[in-house]
Amino acid sequence: MESSVHVISAYRLADIFEAGKIATPINVIPRETEDMKMLIPLKQWICDTCAEVIESPEHGWLEWRQDENGKASDFNIVHHIEHSPRKLGGGDCYPFRGLSSHLDRYVGENGLPHLLCLLDEDIHINLVNEHDSYPDVKYIKQWMELVRRLQVQYYEEARQYFDRASEDGYFDGAWGIIFRPEKLKSIIEKYGTPPVSDP
Length: 199
Description:
The protein is built from seven helices and six strands, in the order H-E-E-E-E-E-H-H-E-H-H-H-H. The chain is an alpha+beta fold.
């Protein structure tokens, strides 16, 4: 059965979380198939371009736009070209062909320090060697979404079902606790299967 793929903008997610509006658009591409298995937290992601599973950090790539002032935005987690499902047709999953880096440097015990470098201009001057390049973040909420995807267990998969959970009233009065791993896992378990259609 083919995936039923649709995109939910962050503006709709902002309606879900009244206390914490997400002000910039992000893509959430649910993968809804009958034979779906849970992602391995912090080891697998959904590609923002093709909606297929990125099987490991080494198979992934982080790409972003950078404006004329050196500010980074529109972070995308995608397949590295060597592992892209589009490779056979001569394509890839890179939407911007802009600035990018290996995904594996942003996960694990060294991942958060690398992500924090995007927020601290001084670190660019004092600590970064000649082979590293860290832009400044343009929109903090986009950066926060990236951090959640790369550092919070179960977030990557649970975010696909936020829309369905919201329609069901799951988030009513729950702001502040929904990003706990156990809460995110329960969202996956409750909403991670396709809804049964009426006969």
